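Thread title: Can someone regenerate the structure for this chain?

I was given the following input by a collaborator and told the matching C-alpha cells would be attached. They weren't. Posting the sequence so someone can regenerate them.
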Amino acid sequence: MLRIEAVPDEASPLAETARDLFRNYYDFLVSTRSCGGHLPGLDDEIATLPIAYTSHGGEVLVAIVDDQPAAAIAYRAVASDYQNAPHTCDIKRPFVHPSFRGQGLFRTLVADVLARAKAHNFTRAILDTTTMAAAHALYVALGFKEYKREDNLTYLELTLSPAPSTKLLT
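Best answer:
Regenerated them for you:
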C-alpha cells in the first residue's frame, strides 16, 4: 500500500526518513556523475529538513510503500523576482530508492507534487534534470517543456492550471 506524506517539521520521525532519502539521492547523483561532486548547501538543507521548503511555501514529501521508505521529492517557491514569476515553484530532489524503481512510483510522486503545488496556488513548476535521461523523458511526457535561463542553463517548465475553487456560491 502506498501513502505519500508531507514532512511536518524537523523533529518528526518522517523528517529523518526524508534525510536518509535525500542522502541516497545525493549518493546516486555522485555515482552517476550527474553533479559535480558537491551540491552547495545540501548538508545544511538535509540537516534542517523540511525548513528549506516549508519556509518558502512548499513541502518535502515522502512516499511509503508497505511501511518502507520508498521515495522523496520536494518543492518550494523560487525567488519572487525570478523571471517575474512569483507563483513559480521549483521541484527538487526527486528520488526513488532502487528497490522501488520500475513500479511507476516516480510518475505518481511527480503527479502528487504537482497537485499539491496547484493547491498552494503555484501556476508554474520548474526543475533541472537534463543529465538524467529517464527522468527528463518522464517530465517531457508529463508536459514539461525545455527553456533556457538567462545563465544559459536548460531547465524544464510546466504551466499549472489553477486549483479548483472550493468556494461555495451563495
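The longest helix spans residues 13-31.
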